[in-house]
Each structure stands twice: as C-alpha cells, then as structure tokens.
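Journal club side-thread
Mid-discussion, someone asked how the predicted structure for our own chain would compare to the paper's figures. Pasting it here so we can look after the session.
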Amino acid sequence: MWNLILEFQQYQEDLLELLEFETEYAERMASIEKCSLEEAMAKYTEWYYMHTTAPGSHDERLALMRQLAFKEARRRFFEERVIPEQQKRFIEGQAEIRGSRAGFIAEAHPEYYSESPEIFLTLHFRNYFAPDSPFAHKQELANGLLQLIGEFLSEHPAVERVQCASWLNNVPDFLSLFPDEWLACRILCLPMEPSTGWWGSLIDKTGRFSRKRAELFKKHGGFSMPNMLCRCKIEDLLHHLKKW
C-alpha cells in the first residue's frame, strides 16, 4: 500500500478499512466452510501479520483471532499493536521504494510452492510513480528491470530463473514486460495466504483502499484478480526487455 506520496495517517486509515473488509470476508467464509470465525480469520485476514514479523504457531494465531472476533477489540489492537509496527514498516518501505529500480525489488529466494532448492531471482513490485499508474511509465519499468537483473546477476551469477507471485500477473500491462513463457506457466497460488499478493488487488494506483474494487469483490463473491505465480528463464526475460 505504501508509496512515496502517501502520508502515514492516510495509510493507517485505509489499512484499518482493508482489515475490516478482510474480516467481513472471513465471516462469510466461516459460514460457507462451516468453521469457527477465528479459523477463518487466521486463514484469510492479515491481522496477525500486521503486528509482528514472527510467523507464530497455528495455535498462537488462533488465540489472537479469538480475541479479535469483536470490533472494539480489533480497534484497540490496531491502535496499540498494529500502528507502532506499521510506522516502522512504513518508513522502511518508503526507503525500499527509493532504492528500487523503477519499483522493482529483487530477492534471492527458493522457488515458491515447490520443495526444489533452486534459487530464483524473486521480484517484488511497488508503485514508484504514484500517483501515476506505473504502466504510464513502461519504458522506465523495462529499463529498471534490466538494471535490476544486471545487479542481481553480478551477485548471484548461477541463478537462471526469475519468479513473481502477485495479483499483478492478471494485468496485461504488467504481463507485457515479460516473455510468453511467463504467462504460459502461470499457476494459482493456493492455498490462499493472507498477503499483499492477494489483498493488494484492492489497492489503487495512489496507494489508497479502492472502494470501487471492494464493491466488485462483493459482487463477484471473491477475487477477480487472484494471486498468481509466474516464472521464466532470466535469459528469455533479458532478450524480451532488450527489444523495448
């Protein structure tokens, strides 16, 4: 959600609205799946991960969700535990965007949804150009991605493949930055995890919670742009980008 123009006050207001929206979804899913509310909240909402970076045990997450079943308890928890943690992440996140390559950030990470030990160039993406759509700056995106790959390979020359798990893998403008192989191997990231890869689709280009997208979500009964994993060879991506 964060970018270089968003104020923290705006961010925390929208974050609370998003978390409450996620909670409404968990309530519906609890009814559909015939499970407890705390189980659905642990499965579908980001509440737990907004106050700590520690994964915690399943029992710890359930215990917290049990406490957060009531709106007033969620408000107190948000003010006392979430806001202090998010203030730190907000500052770190903006610094990360400033140091990015047109919004692209690289990480050396094993292949997602696999037991393979192979390390991938793993992409993360933020909107460096807010309040503009990043896709109004596609040449800069392509150039930034080329620069990032070069820097990554100088430190990890043995890595051969690149991956990204994101709702953005449903967006034609984003997909146009990648070769055909990227889309051909696209897979749905299941089971669903409470993460930006899923819920980020409800955030607009300015970093604000999109009530319009939220209404579409309700209309469709779920995600119209689900979290998708795509992969390809770095060599093929470089060849594709150099044609821009």
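Post-session note: The longest strand covers residues 104-110.
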